[in-house]
Design brief:
alpha+beta; metal ion binding; lipoprotein; membrane; prenylation; methylation
């Protein structure tokens, strides 16, 4: 009897696992959305819509920067869709990075007049190329380089 029960439990457990669909686990992440917020009503509508989402732990709305920050186990596309469903059709994922994270902040694709202060737009032109000529020239006159120019 004990062997039959063990075998029955073993087969049913393995059979059940193979039939059951495994859900993907969402990771904890922070999603930033750029959306134009004009008044308290807009702010309240967006905050209520996003905070009602399953998995949203915290919602911050910064009206001055036109930014909505959502933390939790959420999908960025679903958060964007939820914000757009409130009537804000021009909402987009946050396109800016801090000014200090970009090698060339005044490159053609990076500089944006509408960006909040201290931020520039993400772009490939503004990123430094690894092993580029700028890095090589800077290392020639560096204090850490023992073969640097002796005039300095």
């Amino acid at each position: 009897m004990g062997a039959l029960n063990f075998l029955s439990d073993y087969l049913s457990d393995h059979f059940y696992v193979s039939i059951r669909k495994r859900k993907k686990r969402k990771i904890m992440q922070t999603v930033n959305i750029k959306v134009k917020i004009d008044c308290d009503g807009c702010e309240r509508k967006i905050k209520n819509a996003v905070s009602s989402m399953k998995g949203a732990k915290s919602v911050e709305v910064n009206r001055k920067m036109h930014k909505v920050t959502v933390s939790g186990y959420v999908d960025p596309k679903k958060v964007l869709k939820k914000v757009q469903s409130t009537g804000k059709k021009k909402a987009e994922l946050w396109p800016y990075v801090p000014y200090t994270m970009v090698a060339y902040p005044y490159a053609a694709g990076a500089y944006d007049k509408r960006a909040p202060s201290g931020f520039v737009r993400k772009s490939e032109q503004a990123q430094a190329q690894p092993g580029g000529t700028d890095d090589k020239l800077m290392s020639l006159f560096s204090d850490e380089n023992p073969n640097a120019c002796t005039i300095m």
